[in-house]
Design goal:
By secondary structure, the chain is mainly alpha-helical. The chain is 71% helix and 4% strand. It has one domain (2-199): Fumarate Reductase Cytochrome B subunit, CATH 1.20.950. It has 8 helices and 2 strands, in the order βαααααααβα. Bound molecules: protoporphyrin IX containing FE.
């Protein structure tokens, strides 16, 4: 085991863009004055997630859904190991975290999509309430996600937040990715900006 490159640029930029945009959308959600900023932030959330869904199919190894979305057996096996005090170390996302990520991406898309419909004056009160409910569910899942990250930091003795910044984690040499894909990260930023502008028009 050594320090290996695990997270490419699109995963890292996408993560912090998503976290920042969600925080901004949450903070501006209740204010009429900040409505446009809220729409830009929500549009960014949708743009980053749409890109991430494609990146999950064509991105580098650890970014791909097939590398971290496990069936019930894989998740239960991981949780059993965790409870027994010897959780399996994964170079990429662990099997439990993988499902939290699927949940965050799904909720983010639903919250953003319903927000856009509300912004277009569609649906009325019930849609507004649904949008608010989805945003609250997402905030709760973000809480679970951040708690999971903190617990994993302690269990594995590894700074996962730093890994999401630098791209480097502990792993076997054969598990390293070969490239950080900077050009795709530039495309992500351009795409997210376009989505923010287009959805907030
Ligand atoms: C201060 C707050 C946050 C911290 C410290 C944090 C930290 C992290 C870390 C360390 C990972 C990698 C976990 C692993 O090693 O498997 C991760 C992944 C992820 N986080 Fe966060 N996170 C934060 C907020 C958020 C928010 C607000 C969202 C969504 C709105 C979010 C969505 C995700 C997603 C989707 C991934 C998967 C990344 C990918 O594969 O593209 N995170 N986060």
């Amino acid at each position: 085991m050594g320090k290996i490159l695990v997270w490419d640029w699109p995963v890292r930029i996408g993560h912090w863009l998503l976290a920042g945009a969600f925080a901004l959308a949450w903070l501006t959600g209740d204010s009429e004055e900040w409505r446009l900023v809220h729409a830009y932030a929500g549009g960014t959330v949708v743009g980053v997630i749409l890109f991430r869904l494609i990146w999950g199919l064509v991105g580098t190894y650890h970014a791909r859904f097939t590398s971290f979305v496990r069936g019930p057996g894989g998740v239960l096996g991981y949780l059993r190991g965790l409870l027994a005090g010897r959780p399996a170390h994964t170079a990429g996302h662990n099997p439990a975290g993988g499902w939290a990520i699927v949940g965050l991406l799904t909720l983010g898309l639903l919250a953003g999509g319903s927000g856009w419909l509300v912004y277009q004056d569609m649906g009325g009160k019930w849609l507004e309430e649904l949008h608010e409910g989805l945003a609250k569910a997402m905030l709760a899942l973000v809480g679970v996600h951040v708690a999971g990250v903190i617990v994993s930091n302690f269990i594995h003795g590894e700074n996962l937040v730093r890994a999401m910044l630098t791209g480097y984690k502990r792993g076997g040499l054969g598990e390293a990715i070969a490239t950080t894909r900077p050009l795709a990260a530039v495309m992500l930023i351009g795409w997210a900006a376009f989505c923010a502008w287009w959805l907030a028009r």
